[in-house]
Amino acid sequence: MGQVFVLDHPLIQHKLTYIRDKHTGTKEFRELVDEVAMLMAFEITRNLPLQPKTIETPVVETESSVLAGKKIGLVPILRAGLGMVDGMLKLIPAAKVGHVGLYRDPKTLQPVEYYIKLPSDIEERELIVIDPMLATGGSANDAIHSLKKRGAQNIRLMCLIAAPEGVEVIKKDHPDVDIYLGALDEKLDEKGYIIPGLGDAGDRLFGTK
Ligand code: PRP
Ligand code: URA
């Protein structure tokens, strides 16, 4: 069964408070999302395998460690997932980046896929699907199905904020996918917004309405 990790590091919680605050403007919101994505990347990469490497320091020869060449792929869900890409790339600069374009139909809340472009070797990569919000779970669920259909074997999901409803959907449909969250909120409202949440992540990131 996939595990759910809430990355409740104090810096993440502090920054999330300002991200949630409706008085935080677009510029600061964007910067904070970028910073939290970087901090979450630090946590999510904790278990990457290492391999030994012999080097010479200026003083002696010694055996040290380097990453064992695990190939990572980031897959932001457009459009709000884009806001987390640069922050993650600061820590994992060699990661390839695929894109899945989805939006929620405002009436049905069902995800509609309008774009997909992925690295050619996704079956060999550890893929991290990124989206600030996991609400009904429809968008992430659909994105993960799309990736699996195209051969993805190892997928993790990383979101700033989730509702319990969305987490349950992913756990049920994708028990092989671990979920990493900045916060697990209370519930969804009747329009499918996360409560307390942060409002519409895409609109707040890009200054649209
Ligand atoms: C938001 C968000 C997620 C989705 C979550 O995207 O970024 O992708 O809603 O909701 P769900 O779990 O109920 O599917 P939105 O549809 O607003 O599109 P946008 O990123 O283009 O603004
Ligand atoms: N999408 C968002 O951007 N915010 C929510 O609260 C739910 C879905």
UniProtKB/TrEMBL annotation:
Residues bound to 5-phospho-alpha-D-ribose 1-diphosphate: R79, R104, D131, P132, M133, L134, A135, T136, G137, G138, S139, D200
Co-factor note (free text): Binds 1 Mg(2+) ion per subunit. The magnesium is bound as Mg-PRPP.
Chain ranges of the Phosphoribosyltransferase domain: 6-208
Cofactor: Mg(2+)
A cellular component annotation (GO) from this entry: cytoplasm
GO biological process: UMP salvage; uracil salvage
Pathway(s) this gene product operates in, as recorded in its UniProt entry: Pyrimidine metabolism; UMP biosynthesis via salvage pathway; UMP from uracil: step 1/1
Record keywords: Allosteric enzyme, Glycosyltransferase, GTP-binding, Magnesium, Nucleotide-binding, Transferase
EC number: 2.4.2.9
Reactions listed under catalytic activity: UMP + diphosphate = 5-phospho-alpha-D-ribose 1-diphosphate + uracil
HAMAP family assigned to the protein according to its UniProt record, in alphabetical order: Upp_B
Family: Belongs to the UPRTase family.
Protein name: Uracil phosphoribosyltransferase
Organism expressing this protein natively: Virgibacillus massiliensis
